[in-house]
Amino acid sequence: KGFPSGDFTWSSLSGRSVRLMPVAIQSLSELERARLQEVAYTRLHQDYDLGCQITMPKDGQKRKKSLRRKLDSLAKEKSKDKECVPQAFSIPLSQVIANDRTHRQRQDGYRQDPPQREEHKDPSDLVSSILQFATKRPSNKELSSSNSSLSSTSETANESTSPNTPEAAPRARRRGGMSVDSITDLDDNQSRLLEALQLSLPAETPSKKEKHRDKRLSLNPIYRQVPRVVDSCCQHIEKYGLQTVGIFRVGSSKKRVRQLREEFDRGIDVQLDEEHSVHDVAALLKEFLRDMPDPLLTKELYTAFINTTLLDSDEQQSVTQLLVYLLPACNSDTFHRLLEFLSTVADHAHDQQDKDGQEITGNKMTSLNLATIFGPNLLHKQKSSDKEFSVQSSARAEESTAVIAVLQRMITSYHTLFMVPPDLQNEVLMSLLETDPDVVDYLLRRKASQ
Prior knowledge:
By secondary structure, the chain is mainly α. 52% of the residues lie in helices and 4% in strands. A hairpin with a 3-residue loop joins strand 1 (3-5) and strand 2. It starts with a strand and ends with a helix. Pfam families: RhoGAP (PF00620).
């Protein structure tokens, strides 16, 4: 199906040699990213001693159950307006992503009439409705034209993988958001609709067997999972606020920030422009990160990230990178966007001269200043009690210093932090060769085309 040789070079079925090169983690398929988590987890335990137990983040499994309970309770409360449920703030990140996906689907023409939507007490009813709707409508060329039998479960903005897709793989090989068996009998148009609904509905309870779990993962890169509110705030400040002195430190209008928050929470298509205060938008971004039920870098990895400061400098980057690989995809993608943004802000911290020799005032927000502000919001553990923390005040001060140091290092090295080196890609492919040899050749051909 494909085999490796020296210097991380593989051969595809067609005989083409594929030499593995460093790639961004976002370019890996969903299946590869899941297997990379396992490879990174093993390497952390075998090659490094962080002096703590490393626990794989739960990837929102508990949150999914909570979401299903929320949906059930909402269905029973017919008199309650669904839009009063927050769409962005103070809810799990995975649910924010799902809400944003639903928002995009409505904009792209997937909207059903409101009365029909309110009738569905169970998410599966919505799927049935969509399928019935699909069978009554003429075939949609956009949904049925692709010949790919190993289709992506999500949008990929800049990549078309259909030319590299195996041509006649059985329907049972399709990787989608639902289990393989459940879409076996559907025609192509229906299965594409199900894939489009993948993140707008609560995911199924994961199978206990890893092999079964893997079969629900896409062989193509999943779309970038960054909350709309985060991306909008970052883009606004990158456009209007990079020369604003003391950004994130200067106060904002609580009334205007609350209004923006409410608009995002109602699912309104908020357009941040020059009329919005940079300081208000900065405060909104901090508020979103602060109010997340689970920190962006997860409670499970808190101690491990902190303990990287105890390692030799040459090991700190490698271990930090492996820990980033353990993050769920939505956390990883959101963190990448945030670090990209913070790095850009830090690049404009000092006074500069433009091409005409005019001095441009810096914003004074160095990577250290940014890490001091954002660190406690991104990396923290659940507080047990006020009494416990009053006793451990000195320990907390040391940990706070470590949090700042860890985030500052990641801001300055974000360009390489999310790259996956050839040796780890090789381990991922070797692992897949043992469990899913049929997909390795497809992945190799996609790598060769990039």
